Amino acid sequence: MPLRIGGLQPLSTIDMPGRLAAVVFLQGCPWRCGYCHNPGLQPAETPPGATPAPDWAAVLRFLEQRRGLLDGVVFSGGEPTLQQDLPAAAAQVRALGFQVGLHTAGMYPLRLVGLLPLLDWVGLDIKAPWPRLDALSGAPGSAAKLRASLGHLLRSRVAHECRTTWHPELFPAEELEALASELSGLGVRDWALQRRDGVHPPELDAAMLQRLAAGFRRFHLR
Q1: Are 141 and 114 in contact (CB under 8 A)?
Q2: In DSSP terms, which residues pair with 167 in a beta bridge?
Q3: Domains observed in the chain
């Protein structure tokens, strides 16, 4: 089955650190997070009335024209690993001379294992502390799958960033601090804290940010 594409961003300076990249958004996600910023990508098929997206052949033609101008291609979503043809697509991108990045929430750990040799960078979403993740995603077993994916990623030594979107309405600040400590203890060295909708909660004062950052080699506040 061809890749189901939800959109193409021709140029991004932020989706693959240190690289100029195109972003291919893939259609479909099994989770139903209430604050999802791409709800149009949740259905397996493009919703009626949505702007038509290019097919994979058109994306490849676009990339061929950008050889020497772009450094990489990021597969985002939705949840890219939902689609079984993603490894073949990643291999085609590498064959064109591009680095390959992936944005994932770790829903399919075994598929991630197969993809990792084809990847240069991974952005892994740690959406909530493990006890809260199943309720937030609306999918039983989400926490176990994400933990397995995190383990595979850490063992692979593929460059990566873990990131968590947070607001006090999602879970309390003390649980955010506990999550930071746990991730650091598991071996995560690069963690980004993303503010929901750009809102800076008062709980994120200088002292708390210092505590959150303490266990990581790189800590980013977005």
Answers
A1: no
A2: none
A3: 5-158 (3.20.20.70)
Phi and psi at 70, nearest 5°, equal -110, 150
Tell which residue, 21, 143, 145, 10, has the closest CA to residue 81: 145
| C-alpha torsion sign, points 132, 134, 135, 137 | positive
In 10 A of CB 147, how many CB atoms?
Answer: 16
Beta bridge partners of 123: 103, 161
Question: pLDDT tens per residue, the chain (222 residues)?
Answer: 579 999 999 999 999 999 999 999 999 999 988 778 788 888 877 767 667 789 999 999 999 999 999 999 999 999 999 999 999 999 999 999 999 999 999 999 999 999 999 999 999 999 999 999 999 999 999 999 999 999 999 999 899 999 999 999 999 999 999 999 999 999 999 999 999 888 899 999 999 999 999 999 999 999
Token pair, residue 177, equals 């601090």
